[in-house]
Amino acid sequence: MLLGAGTMPLSAVHIFSSSGEKRCIINISKMEGMAGLFWTTGLELLCVLDHGYVQRYNIAGDIITDGGFFLGSVAKEQKVVQVYGGKNALVARTSKNRFVMVKDVADPMAKVLPHTELLQDIACVQLLETTDGYATRVELMVAVGNSVVVIDEYGAEDQLLNLPNPIESMSVSPNGQLLAVLDTEGWIRVLSTDLTKHLSAFETGVTRGPRQMAWCGLDAVLLDCMDSLLLIGPYGDSIRYPYEDLVFLKQEIDGARLFSSSKVEFIGRVPTASQSIFQIGSVAPGALLYDAKRYFDEKSIKADENMREIGEENLPVAIKHCIEAGLSEWEPTEQQTLLQAAAYGLAYYKSKSLDPNILKDACQSLRVLNAIREADIGFLITYPQLVQLGMPRILTWLAKSRQHLLALRIAQMIGSGAQDVVLDWALSKIRSEISNGLSDDVLYEALFPKLKSCVGIPIAHIAQYAHTSGRPKLATRILEIESSPSQYVPLYLKLGEDIRALEKSIDSGDEDLIYLCLFHMLKNWQLKDFLKVIVDHPHARDLFIFHCRTNEPELLETTYLYMNKPEGIADACVEQALSRNSGQTLPRSPLPATPQLMERAAKAFTQNKSCLVESKTAEDAAKLLRQQTDLENALSGVALKGLSLSMTISQLLIVGHEKSALRLKSDFRLSERAFLTIKAASLAETKNWEQLLVLARNKRLPLPHDYLVNLAANSSNGGAPRQVLEGLIQCIPDPRQRAELFTQYNFKSEAEALLQQDKDNEFITRLFAKMGT
Fold first, then answer.
1. Which of 138, 133, 209, 125 is nearest to 171 (CA)?
2. Helices (H) and strands (E) in the chain, counts
3. SS (HEC) of 372-395
4. What are the residue ranges of helices labelled H in 611-657?
5. Cβ atoms of 728 and 705 closer than 8 Å
6. CA-to-CA distance for 258 and 264, rounded, in angstroms?
């Protein structure tokens, strides 16, 4: 309710409950021009100012932070003069008859509706919201003369109704299907909202224009005629109620609510079930069951007579009527009587066609209705309205009204919604105690029992709210209740509890969370302090080293230096060098070329006495890499870099650079036996049989002769020719070994010639067996 001081500008908004209890006062004296007020379905009050700004308030009169929004430049320039609200939509009308629409105030996006020259001398405007299950459509029905112009976000169209008289007032039914139109001559016409069907017309006889018009349920229209209220039924029947007080009409799905300066009243159709039970002389099944319960309490035999008269087939109807009548009653005593009658009927009912929970659900609904109708709560709603709103909406209303205890009891009774209630209670508790100066410890002790006992409540959200409210210590303690690492670890980081976040993430075993903490600390900490922390946490240290090894080699070297692990630096250098030789250089690598990397590895290995062999190996690798580079530059077309020493010598021998190969042998102190092994393999690969025979005739050859024979026989493309094999075997000084090789490679005549000279019968028998002779 807006209040002003006499003729002075509006100065305050007073919020009352339906029972007349004043909830709060909002001071608006500093606001520049109030254009209108609008309640959302979530019990938020929207105050629309004439320059287009919309401010949100909760039911306690507190400004909702970051809840306000602008209606755009058109509203600001032309000034808002009138506001129309629906279930979720808001439409503002400017001084130049432009309309600005917000389809959903929960997610406000202002859009200017198309303009048309038809909008002259506007009589009234109605807002129509329709939902097809996927999207909501908002239309404006603007009365201009004796027709209606329908405007939506796509355009404006005159419906060309051509009514007999100009329209004075309109009202859309609660279900959005019917439109009541009152003209200047006092005629009310009911049309479908698509304006294609004229359903009925009624002459009210009102000589002066009514102050208000509203639907009473879905089939009656209520007019405020200055000194009385005129109720017009669906078949032209009417009832006039004398009413001299100023009244505000609020239409509901099952009636109309009347607000005056002294009371709140409700006008609605008497339910069919109540009529059948309480009508004088009624013999309906519900009335008989109601009387049967009364006779039973009086211990009268008429109770049995009534039950027999109802019969088994009509008993379900009687039970349903008693329950429906009980749900429509406002007095708890009468509710109890009707539900007891239904329970009495259920005792006789043997079939199972009725819902077994029908009575239980009715009792729960009445308990909720009676509780919220109490004067200190003040939600005076009917059962059909309760069904339309749903229990979640009721719980939201109670929570926003700070009736958390009642909301929690209702949520526990119906088995859902307790988490949302406790969440809202915790947030409001933190919010209300900030100004009271309550310490963090005391406030935590008040919050802890409820938060701990409520399963599924988002603890992290409450801790985040405490943090943004300036209570980081309280937020840290609240987070100790949270059991989900993915919820509390990121918030610990926001609270500045980096080490605790790291420890919690390590305990969880979630590597993604550990990396989140590591990267956050690396970004915000000094590197020295960061490394000091991760050294004390081995799992985090190993993950960080793995990351650096694959992404930031320079940072890896710094880490190993801090850890005093030179062998780690050496390993990293070797790995980097090997990756470069294989053509897979690690990304963002600032390290030098491969020889220098191996030299650095050798130097790092020398710092650890247990790694002397590794140091020598790395030093030789660096030396080999440099020589390979020089040889590649000198010998065009020869690729040597990255090969081992033996493969390098082999490659040089294959391409005919034996001098370079001998120089490598000397530089790396390669043994004669090893060098000749490589040379023999190279000669066999290049099929240089002549040189291989020369090598075999060397009496000081440090290689076994059968090695050369096998090497030639197993060379590529079918092996060496038979004469080459025979020549190689002939170079073997031991006749028995020659005989065995001749036998192995199918030189039968040569083998037999040698065996004739041998006197070992067992040896001869074994070889002949091999030859198959």
1. 125
2. 31, 26
3. HCCCCCCCCCCHHHHHHHCHHHHH
4. 612-634, 645-654
5. yes
6. 6
Q: Give 486: exposed, middle or buried? Use CB within 10 Å, 0-12, 13-18, 19+.
A: middle
d(CA 572, CA 558) in angstroms, rounded, equals: 11
- Give the list of residues 6+ apart from residue 111 with CB closer than 8 angstroms, or none: 100, 101, 102, 103, 153
Identity at 490, one-letter amino acid code:
P
Residue 627 CB contacts under 8 Å (≥ 6 apart), including other chains: 664, 667
SS3 string, 341-376, reads HHHHHHHHCCCCCCCCCHHHHHHHHHHHHHHHCCCC
pLDDT for 673-702, tens place per residue? 777 777 777 777 777 777 777 777 777 777
Q: What is the pLDDT of residue 92?
A: 93
Q: Which two tokens stand for residue 272?
A: 């069919």
Which amino acid would we find at residue 611?
C
How many angstroms separate the Cα of 318 from the Cα of each of 199, 269, 445? 35, 20, 53
Which residue's entry shows tokens 């600001």?
Answer: 76
**Interatomic CA distance for residues 57 and 26, integer angstroms:** 9
**Residue 255 Rama label (left phi>0; alpha psi -120 to 50; beta):** left
* Nearest CA-CA partner of 771 in 735, 753, 744, 738: 744
**Do 567 and 591 touch, CB atoms closer than 8 A?**
no
Using left for φ > 0, alpha for ψ between -120 and 50, and beta otherwise, residue 176 falls in left
**pLDDT at site 623:** 63
Structure tokens at 338: 């009707």
Structure tokens at 186: 């006092």
332-375 pLDDT, tens digit per residue, is 999 999 999 999 999 998 877 788 899 999 999 999 999 999 98
Task: Please give the Cα distance from 349 to 19 (Å, whole number).
Answer: 41
Quick one: CA dihedral 741, 747, 750, 754, positive or negative? positive
Directed axis angle between helix 485-494 and helix 511-524, to 10°? 0
Q: What does the block give as tokens for 312?
A: 């088994």
For 357, what's the count of Cα atoms within 13 Å in the CB-facing half-sphere? Answer: 4
Closest CA to 673 of 706, 703, 705: 703
| Burial bucket for residue 771 (CB in 10 Å: 0-12, 13-18, 19+) | middle
Q: How far apart are CA 62 and CA 72, in angstroms?
A: 24
**CB of 171 closer than 8 Å to CB of 179:** yes
Give the tokens for residue 172: 């859309």
Tokens of 484: 């989900």
Chain position carrying tokens 């009687």:
318
